[in-house]
Specification:
Layout lengths: L1 H27 L3 H5 L9 E5 H7 L1 H35 L7 H53 L4 E5 L9 H8 L13 H11 L16
Parallel strand pairs: 1-2
Helix pairs in contact: 3-7, 4-5, 5-7
Amino acid sequence: MRTSLIAAGGVTIVLLALAVGGLQAQTQAPPQSAQRGAPSASNYPIAVVDVTYILERYSRLKQANEVFKKDAEGTEATLKKERDSIAKRAERLKELKGGTPDYKREEEAITKAESDWKLHVAAQQRDFAERESKNYLRAYQELQAAVKNYAERNGITLVLRFNGMPPDPNNRQMVQMEVFKMVLFYDKSIDITDAVLADLNRSAAVAQPPRSPAQPRRQ
């Protein structure tokens, strides 16, 4: 196993060396297609973007989530009323004499009501999960388009995703994500997160409130 891991590590080093060489070649001699376009605003045709940060502050997604939350709360209140109504019927059932036709008829009605309620809850959960997924997918697709437009305007040929949130050492999942993240280092000048977020919020025609100086975006 040790031999195979060492061999794999050697291949990885070679591939990384080739990739770095390719990036250096791109930096020193841009391709003809890039030379025909507008000159790059950066010294390097590469950038990074914090997707999580943008989605948390994208005004259109925030509005969609607010509507989603209100609708979910309303549906939850309705389901609670239905459940309470069934519970009251079950309490009143105790007042009837067991084994009588009225008792059996009401017991069957309550059982059916409980079954229908559970099916209704499951359907609502499924619908809201699909709706939430669509909200985030739409926002992510709009983010992709904004990144593409910004990159093309500024002569950027590669945009990498990264997470600028410092990991919580007490959160095992966050620590694992930190260890396996793809971007280990980046120059602050190639971080286009704020620019892309501004483009997105302008397209949504919603002003983004200024960031509080006491809460910097990234460490």
